Amino acid sequence: MSNYTFNFFEKDGSIKLEWVSDRARNFAEILDTAIFQDYNRNLYQVTRNNNGKFFGKHKKDKMLEDALSSNQLRNFYNEFLRIRDLPADNKTKLVQIKLLEAKVRYKKTNSPKEMKQIFVDFITELIKQIGDSIEKFNNSCLIIEAVVGFFPKNK
What we know:
This protein is 50% helix and 9% strand. By secondary structure, the protein is mostly helical. The protein has a domain of 99 residues. Strands 2-1-3 form a three-stranded antiparallel sheet. α4 packs antiparallel against α5.
């Protein structure tokens, strides 16, 4: 689990406003970084330049985790919207919401370098904090929308 702290909702279940503004912007920037390891086993993060190359990466350094692609992020956003717009009862929607955690963990297991651990932690904690509240789920769609909106465009 990452060292990043996720706290999405107020005590009354409403969304914390920073998750549709500054916090979403900062988190989107984190998702756009790759993690490398140098020959001394030191970890560092880098972002891509306009040509798709990484700033400050040494040729021999090993990539441990790539930046999250905008397609991966949008796929999860679309899943949230699909569930929100289902013409189904709340119980059916709650089952679909719980399955989102399994989907993100599967993606990480299937493509460990391509699915950032911090994104897995983000989705997992979001689902945990949603619990059985459809209202919180609907608010979580706004959080994901903000992260997508702040995510850097393809470089």
